[in-house]
Amino acid sequence: MRRDVKPGLPAIAQPGDIVVDSSGANCAASEPFALRILDESMAPELWADCVVIVDPTVSPFDGCLVLAELETELVVRTYRTKAHGFSLEAQNRIFPTLPSERVVALWGVVSQRAGTRRRDHRRYALAPGEV
């Protein structure tokens, strides 16, 4: 849908206007972004209201934290490789392990945990074997 917009006037988004491009063709698709955790599924590593930085350019590897799209929600989980595919594990055992069949897309790897205090900040490895 194309609408003519006069310079200096903001366009109002209409349904169908917003398209998510995760192919990497769009520059913004390769930029890290912040995300607020809403549940306790990754506690004690990531608590509710914790802010993480997700890097969409990093390929997932065994043991890293990933942002995954399911049919109805986005979740952060630990990526585990299997003989055939992968699974996503929650650190809080109340939440189930998700098989790869439930995953619509992987949006990126968690690279940092932000916090209001220095002790709350943490950087995560972006490749296997990194410290």
- State the CATH architecture of the domain at 37-123: Ribbon
* CA radius of gyration: 17 Å
Oligomer: single chain
- Number of contiguous helices: 0
Overall pLDDT: 80
Using the alpha-carbon principal axes, give the shape.
Answer: globular
Q: What's the SSE pattern?
A: EEEEEEEE
- Contiguous runs where pLDDT drops below 50 for at least 5 residues: 1-20
Question: CATH homologous superfamily of the domain at 37-123 - what is it?
Answer: Umud Fragment, subunit A
Helix-residue proportion? under 10%
Strand content: 25-35%
Instruction: Write the CATH fold name of the domain at 37-123.
Output: Umud Fragment, subunit A
Distance between the termini: 47 Å
Total number of beta strands: 8
Could you characterize what this model shows?
The chain is built from no helices and 8 strands. The chain is mainly beta and 131 residues long. Strands 1, 2, 3, 4, 5, 6, 7 and 8 form an 8-stranded antiparallel beta sheet that branches.
